[in-house]
Amino acid sequence: MDDSSEIARHTDRFILGSDLAEVWERSITRVINAPDSDFVAGATAGAYLDLAAVTLRALHPSEGRRVSDKYSFPELLQEYAGASGYADQTNADFATIAQRMYGYQVPGHPPLNQIARITDILADDPGTRRALVALWMPEVDLFHEDSHPLGHCFLNFAIRNQALDLHVVSRSVDAWVGAVPNMIAFADVQRRMADGLEMNVGTYTQFILSYHIYLTFLPHVAHVFRSPPNE
Predict the structure, then answer these.
(1) Which of 25, 62, 143, 166 has the fewest CB atoms within 10 Å around its CB?
(2) Helix residue spans in the chain (DSSP H)
(3) What is the b/e burial string over 149-176, where b = at least 16 CB atoms within 10 angstroms of the residue's CB?
């Protein structure tokens, strides 16, 4: 059995770049050009073009270009990301992410600052595999009918090659609108933790189960990316 085409298809879902802007540009080109991107009839926000199980990796997330000149929603950078990342948010979705990172609610316990705890764990044990931040709460995101489930499930911080890597696992990311402020905000959390640990920033990796562009945006996306970046 010849699996070469299937292997090539999965290889196309690993998108590597030097900085955040390059990764995003390449990812958009991949979604609109990949032969196995799937048109899905969404039940909430309308139909979308979806590329499933995508991995984005920036080698230098705190250096180089962070925002592509092709990104069309600069106002969201201040609302969602801003200088302080997810630490201080007024937008409801991102305030929820900040609350779960810095004040996770457990009945019968005071709020849990997961970021502070993980910083302490990494300082004491740089090789730990327990530096996980929980963002997905089944009792809210899965069982509460009125909730708007978070798009992100958990973060993993790891010290490798004397630098702090960040891995983000996401349920759903709007590639055209939300991906850029998402990446910048999480990378800011990574940079601040690295600064606190007095070490270099490593790679930023995000695994996304549904990486999609809504059909209403596709004509504009195709126009903006009519000259794809070199890969």
Answers:
(1) 143
(2) 4-11, 20-33, 74-76, 92-102, 114-124, 179-196, 218-224
(3) bbbbbebbbbbeeeebbbbbbbebbbbb
| Residue 7: per-residue pLDDT | 53
118 Cβ partners below 8 Å, 6+ apart?
131, 132, 133, 157, 193
* Structure token pair of residue 49: 């073009």
Report the SS3 class of residue 193. Answer: helix
Q: Residue 10 — pLDDT band, cuts 50, 70, 90?
A: low
Tens-digit pLDDT profile for residues 205-223: 999 999 999 999 999 999 9
Helix axes 92-102, 114-124, angle to 10 degrees: 40
Q: How many CB atoms lie within 10 A of CB 124?
A: 8
pTM (predicted TM-score): 0.88
Q: Which domains does the chain carry? A: 4-221 (3.30.572.10)
Describe the crossing of helices 179-196 and 20-33 by its angle, rounded to 10 degrees: 150
160-192 pLDDT tens trace: 999 999 999 999 999 999 999 999 999 999 999
| Bridge partner list, 54 | 208
